[in-house]
Amino acid sequence: MMNKKTNSIREIVLEKITVNIGVGSPGERLDGIKTFMEKLSGKKFIETKAKKRNPVFKLRVGLPIGLKTTLRGKGAFDFLNKALDSRKRKINKTNFDNAGNFAFGVKECIDFPGVKYDPKVGVFGFDVCVTLKRRGKRVADRMRRISKIGKAQLITKEEAINFAKTFFNAKIEEEE
Q: CATH topology for 12-170?
C-alpha cells in the first residue's frame, strides 16, 4: 500500500497574532498598561488614536486611547498558548470568520498565566486576533508581480477550526 504524501503548500500556518487593548483615555494608566504588556509579550506596543470626536467620553481626534502590536514566529505561538490557557482553551465557533481567521478576548489580564496584579495598572482586558495562511500566499501579498491565488488555496472556517483543535488543543463550543 502506498503512503499518501501531504502537500506542503496545503499546510496551514500561523501568520501573525494581533493584540489590541482599548483603554479609552490617555494618561498614566495607558503608559502603565503599555509597559506591562511589553514585558508580557516581549514586543513593543504602539498607541492607537481616536478617529472621531466624542464629547460624552471627552475624546478628541488624535488622542491616544489604546494599544496594539503584532506577534510572529515562536513568540506568537507562546503568547497564543498562554492566552488560550487563560480561557481554559475554549473558543466559540462564532469567533471564526469565513476566511479562516479567529479572534477572542481575554477578559482580565490577571487570568493570563504568570501575571500578578499590579495596583498601578489595575485590571484590563485585551483582544487576540489570529491570522492563518497557507504557504504561497505571499504571491498575492507582494508588491511586485502580484498574482491571484486559487480558491483551493483559501482557508475555510472548518479548516481553521480543525487547525485550532489539533495545534492548540482548543475546545470549540457552540454559542448558546
A: 50s Ribosomal Protein L5; Chain: A, (3.30.1440)
